[in-house]
């Protein structure tokens, strides 16, 4: 009789735990999905609009060149991408990472040098494609990374947590921003490929 009662108690406990697992399952799955997605990070993220097409939610709906055109901090980059004829290339690419120089990054380039670059489509294309890696990169992959870019040259990344450098000198000011086809890391310097 005691053995039967213990079996009944065990069955009841198992049933209760199964019901609890079923009830908590969706919540646990949602929690793990939120952790996997990650949130944009960095001091430069404060300049991103809170709503509208230029917000993080708005950018997630558009391909990367379109998303960048809606972000006021990237207007110089967008001008350069248009001059190089890369809008369709970037918008149609799948699962890429873009290290996007902010307006402040372009402002560091001497005005005469920037004007010369913008006027030279071949060189501009080489510089811009040096900012693009042909696969999506997570912050974890940036800790000690070396990646081939679309310009066929490599760039390096280092750092941890929410502090990352590209090629040892450009800082990620707003990272892990998602668009419909890319992960974007806004950087505070224009990356220059070897000539």
Task: Give your account of this protein's structure.
- 44% of the residues lie in helices and 20% in strands.
- The chain is an alpha+beta fold.
- The chain folds into two domains: 1-37; 43-187, FAS1 domain.
- The chain is globular, with a radius of gyration of 23 Å.
- The chain starts with a helix and ends in an 8-residue tail after the last strand.
Could you list some keywords that capture this structure?
single chain; 195 residues; alpha+beta; FAS1 domain; disordered N terminus
Count of helical segments? 8
**CATH C-level category of the largest domain:** Mainly Beta
Strand order in the largest sheet: 2-1-7-6-5-4-3
Q: Unreliable runs, pLDDT <50, ≥5 residues?
A: 2-36
Percent range for β-strand residues: 15-25%
Give the quaternary arrangement of the chains.
single chain
Q: Largest sheet, described in full?
A: 7 strands, mixed
The residue-averaged pLDDT reads 84
The proportion of residues forming helix, as a percent range, comes to 40-55%
Number of strands: 7
Secondary-structure element string: HHHHHEHHHEEEEEE
Can you tell me the number of structural domains?
A: 2
| Rg over C-alpha atoms, rounded to the nearest angstrom | 23 Å
Indicate the CATH architecture of the largest domain.
Answer: Roll
Going by CATH, what is the homologous superfamily of the largest domain?
A: FAS1 domain
Distance between the termini: 86 Å
Question: What gross morphology would you assign?
Answer: globular
The CATH topology assignment of the largest domain is FAS1 domain
User: From the helix content, strand content and strand pairing, which structural class follows?
Assistant: alpha+beta
